[in-house]
Structures are given as C-alpha cells and as structure tokens.
Design a protein that fits this description.
The chain is α+β, with helices and mostly antiparallel strands. It folds into two domains: 14-121, no CATH class; 169-335, no CATH class. It contains eight helices and nine strands. The longest helix has 25 residues, at 208-232. Mean pLDDT is 86; it is low at 234-239. The chain binds zinc ion. The site of zinc ion has 7 residues, from strand 2.
Length: 336
C-alpha cells in the first residue's frame, strides 16, 4: 500500500478534496468566499504545466529538497470555478501573492496527508460519509433527502458529546468604507458568537453594518497606508503616482462575544480574527529620470481585533465605543 498522498491526474481525488475543503474552512482560497463542496475544485497553485526550470526555481525559493512537486498537497488548495477561470486566464506564477498562498499550503500539507491517510476510505462508513459529504445537492430530490435526514446525524454527534458550537455559520455582510467604497464579505460565526448575535440583533437592534463599518474601514485604511508607504519608499527623486489599492479579499471571523451588565448598561466585547489582501500599483521614475517603471505591490495582513459595544437599555441606544487591532502582521510584497 502506498502512503503517498498526492493529486492523481485523471483519478479519484474526492477524499483529498474533502480534506482540503475542511482545512480551508469551506472557503475558496483565492476569493475567501465560503462555498459548498461541489462549488469548489482542487487548484494547482503553481499550474501543472509550469516549466521544469520554474519548478526548480520555486523549490530553491522555498528551500525545498528539490523542484516543486505540482501534485503534492503543498501545491493544492480549494478554488471556486469563477476564480479558477480568472486564475487560469492570467499568468500568476511571477506574482508575489502566489508565494504567500504556496507557503500557507505547504504549512497545511502535513495535516492534509495525515487526514487523507486516516480517512482510509475503505470501510463502509468511510464510503458512506464521503458520499454524504460530497453529494451534489443541486439536485432537488437529493437536497430534500439531505435536509430531512442530515440533522439526525448532527443529533448523533451531539449525543456523542461533540460540541456543535464548533460548527461555524456564515453571514454575508456589506460595509461602506469611506475611501474604498462598498465591500462585500462573509463573516464566520462560532456557535457562541451566533448566540450572542441573537441578543445583539433582537434585543439591542444591532446590524452588522453598525458593528463593522467603522472597524473594517480602519483595518482597510491601515493596510492601505502600509501598502502605499512601502511602494513609495526610497523614491526621493520624483513623486510616484499610485492608484487606490484594490481589495482582493476580506475575511473576518467572530470567535467570542462576552457581555457584562452594569445597571442599565450592557457592555459587549466582540473578538475575532481578520485577514485582508490588497493590491496596488505605482508608476515611478526610473534612475535616469527619463522614463517610468511600474511596480505592483500586494499586502497581506492578518491579526486579531476586538470591538467594544455599549447598549443603554434605558434609551435603547447602541454605540461602538472602542475598537482595537491587537496583533497584526502585514506582509508587503513588491514585484515589477
Ligand atoms: Zn473564489
């Protein structure tokens, strides 16, 4: 028996896809939108048809033992069809973004391999679970069957002591950023965040916009400043023209909501994680000052945040009174 977990060209990759889907928390790795199993495909981050020289180069850049193996889980990630089409139409191999995504996939690869091997897929139960997890629910009859009977499986999980709070749900949110316009993204809610949200929305009348407009705008502005600073730095000869950066994706998770009461006042603290990707380009004078060179920059920022809210039950007024990005690590990548 082989213990080699790789993508099999033309073969059955359904277990591999199921494991990737789970480890990427049901999201397309390119646009970060949560998708159903059948809306995602397995993407080769560095395309299968990349040249041998390029694969050797990437192997060196990432300190691998040899050239990159395109079918290794370290080069695989779940992608939605629209993103796959977009990605397939552009040569991204030189883009900085690819290396960040590749490094992330390499970090996940040992878990992908371990989970695929553990799944086994030979027992009757493994086969049934795979079928249930990957069934095409676009078909009306299967969808009805699934909706009717899948909850009893969740009930069995509950009887086994599994914490159903660990199952996330997603809400689509649109916020208005003063400098970047309307931005759509999905917020991932843990079970405890979901319960707290019921209180915040039903009792305090909160909307996602009330809660997130300001904080998301602040996060995006901080990332934008960082992107433009890095792109413009070191250019003392002439000014650079930079475009307004484009938001590639926003991912926001709400992990915990704590609350306390003091008289009429209820204080809520919403905590979670964010991840943002932005890109911008600048035109800069070349060394001789008689021409322009173009640079592209991408920023990835990851961090934790908390938002403090106060609801005054006497006059039914809800205010965001504090917001803090606790840790964040921007990674700025510039390429010609
Ligand atoms: Zn996508």
């Amino acid at each position: 028996m082989t213990t080699d977990v790789r993508y099999r060209p033309g073969g059955d990759n359904s277990v591999l896809k199921l494991i990737l889907h789970g480890l990427y928390k049901n999201r397309c790795y390119w646009c970060r939108v949560p998708k159903e199993y059948n809306e995602l495909e397995i993407d080769h981050i560095i395309p299968r048809d990349a040249s041998k020289d390029r694969l050797a180069e990437i192997g060196q850049e990432l300190h691998l033992a040899g050239p990159l193996d395109v079918h290794d889980p370290g080069n695989l990630a779940p992608i939605c069809r629209p993103c796959n089409n977009e990605k397939g139409a552009v040569d991204y191999t030189g883009h900085a973004r690819i290396l960040v995504l590749l490094r992330n996939a390499m970090k996940l690869a040992p878990r992908v391999k371990q989970n695929v091997l553990r799944f086994g897929a030979t027992s009757g139960l493994a086969k049934a679970l795979l079928k249930a997890a990957t069934a095409d629910l676009a078909a009306q009859a299967d969808r009805e069957l699934f909706l009717m009977h899948a909850p009893s499986i969740a009930q069995r999980l509950s009887l086994l002591g599994y914490d159903l709070d660990e199952i996330s749900s997603y809400e689509t949110v649109e916020v208005a950023s003063a400098s970047l316009g309307a931005i759509d993204f999905s917020v991932e809610l843990s079970g405890s965040a979901r319960r707290a949200w019921v209180i915040l929305s039903d009792v305090c009348g909160a909307t996602w916009r009330d809660l997130l407009d300001g904080p998301v705008d602040d996060i995006l502005n901080a990332v934008k400043e960082r992107a433009l600073n890095e792109l413009e730095v070191g250019d003392e000869v002439s000014s650079t023209t930079s475009e307004v950066p484009g938001v590639d994706f926003v991912q926001l998770d709400v992990n915990h909501v704590k609350f306390e009461r003091e008289g009429d006042l209820f204080e809520f603290v919403v905590e979670g994680m964010f991840e943002v990707g932005m890109s911008a380009s600048v035109a800069r004078s070349d060394d001789r000052g008689d021409g322009l060179i173009y640079l592209n920059g991408e920023v990835y920022a990851k961090g934790t945040y908390w938002i403090g809210l106060v609801w005054d039950s006497a006059d039914e007024d809800l205010q965001v009174n504090d917001f803090k990005v606790e840790e964040w690590s921007p990674e700025v990548l510039i390429y010609p």
